[in-house]
Fold this protein.
Amino acid sequence: MRLITIWNEPTLEELVKIPTLYSTDKIPPKDKLIYEHFFIFCCDWYVVEYDPKEQLFFGYAILNNDYQNAEWGYVSLNELKSLNFKGFEVERDLYWNAKKASEIEKIVNSGGIY
């Protein structure tokens, strides 16, 4: 049985710093703060909100460098934990500092700030 995890999974103390779901609804996409960045190969998830009860993130996803189909939406922490490709797991960007979506080149280039 494989242990389901994210390499360097965020701690509870780190997760409670992320705004709750729907609390940033009135903030335009370009001004939303991205609190966490998860990635594996050519896939990126940028986290804006988190529901600790449901362990559900809201943010922006770019899968397989597909900028045309990148979108704002929801992904569960457990879903990220379950992703594994030949022993590679989703990683959390250890050097990430919260920044506006408009400051992230991949989000801008995929049209996510409009």
Q: What stands out?
A: The chain has three helices and nine strands. The helical segments are 12-15, 77-82, 105-109. The longest helix spans residues 77-82. The two ends are 43 Å apart (CA to CA).
